[in-house]
Design goal:
Elements: H1 9-58, E1 69-73, E2 76-86, E3 95-107, E4 116-127, E5 131-139, E6 178-184, E7 191-204, E8 214-221, E9 224-233, E10 239-246, E11 257-266, E12 283-297
Antiparallel strand pairs: 1-2, 2-3, 3-4, 5-12, 6-11, 7-10, 7-12, 8-9, 8-11
Length: 298
């Protein structure tokens, strides 16, 4: 008769120990995998927070006010810093803005129970624009009658004074012949193209306006006149445009500039009214619309 052989107590104990070791190793592995997955999730979320702050920065123009700030979002602490720097290797030392977004969080405790602070860091820049375009438009209003100036007025484009000085009184407004762009300031010297368009309403029920009656316009930078003074016939051309180029020698960096377009009409050459007088009340020359644009380039 054959004798059956079973497991000895020692073999059972060894097997139990091996099973316990395997189960423990599996538990450690599962814990490590869970910690790794959580870390990946936290890092991905931190990247999204940092990227959102950078996108908000890139969505703004260079000229907009952008301040450094910090806050907390869930388990994430974020700091957003904005720096204005200069490309020192460039000829013009052109500035740019650099942003840095840092998002920090506390990682899960490791086997040693030590807390670990992790962080992600993103940065990007906004370059100083090579081209700046600023524009203003003025529409007709009740005070927009075009000033009339006599030939005797020494500074007709000042457009101020009284009828005794050779300028018509204009509905109580001193700026009826003025279009303005102020606060033009650049970080580098700029060449500026000034373009303007003026459209007038001309009412003349008595046919007093002659072919020699004209509107004069001129461009001023910081109160100094540049470019040609244009002369346009009222009778045949009540709308007109012009362009003036101002060199970078005139438009200096870090200096506030102001551009004016001024206009008036002079009708002294017509024989249908006395010298030094305006047209009759049946004639009205007023502004319909005026537009001024300033294009600044490197």
């Amino acid at each position: 008769m054959r004798q059956e052989k079973g497991f000895t107590l020692l073999e059972v104990l060894i097997g139990a120990v091996l099973i316990l070791i395997g189960a423990g190793s599996m538990g450690i592995t599962v814990t490590a995998v869970k910690r790794s997955l959580k870390e990946s999730e936290n890092r991905a979320q931190a990247m999204r927070v940092a990227a959102r702050k950078i996108d908000e920065f890139l969505g703004k123009a260079y000229s907009e006010d952008q301040q450094s700030k910090s806050d907390k979002e869930g388990i994430f602490d974020w700091v957003f810093n904005v720096y204005t720097e200069t490309a020192t290797g460039s000829i013009a030392n052109i500035p740019y803005k650099r942003a840095e977004s840092v998002v920090s969080y506390t990682a899960d405790k490791g086997s040693g129970g030590i807390q670990s602070i992790r962080s992600v860091r993103l940065s990007n820049i906004i370059a100083y624009p090579l081209v700046h375009l600023t524009a203003v438009r003025r529409r007709s209003d009740e005070n927009a009658e075009v000033p009339w100036v006599s030939a005797e007025k020494t500074d007709p484009f000042s457009l101020t004074g009284s009828s005794s000085d050779g300028i018509a009184s204009v509905a109580g407004s001193d700026d009826a012949g003025l279009l303005e762009l102020s606060g033009l300031r650049y970080n580098v010297d700029k060449t500026v193209e000034v373009t303007y368009t003026i459209a007038l309403n001309v009412e003349d029920t008595d046919n007093e306006i002659g072919t020699v009656d004209t509107v004069f316009t001129a461009c001023f930078l910081d109160e100094a006149q540049y470019g040609l003074v244009t002369r346009t016939p009222l009778l045949t051309q009540p709308s007109f445009s012009n362009k003036i180029v101002l060199s970078k020698d005139l438009v200096k960096k870090d200096t506030p500039h102001i551009v004016h377009i001024r206009w008036y009409y002079n009708a002294n050459e017509t024989g249908k009214k006395p010298e030094g007088a305006e047209y009759s009340n049946n004639v009205k020359i007023s502004l319909r619309e005026a537009e001024l644009s300033v294009l600044a380039v490197e």
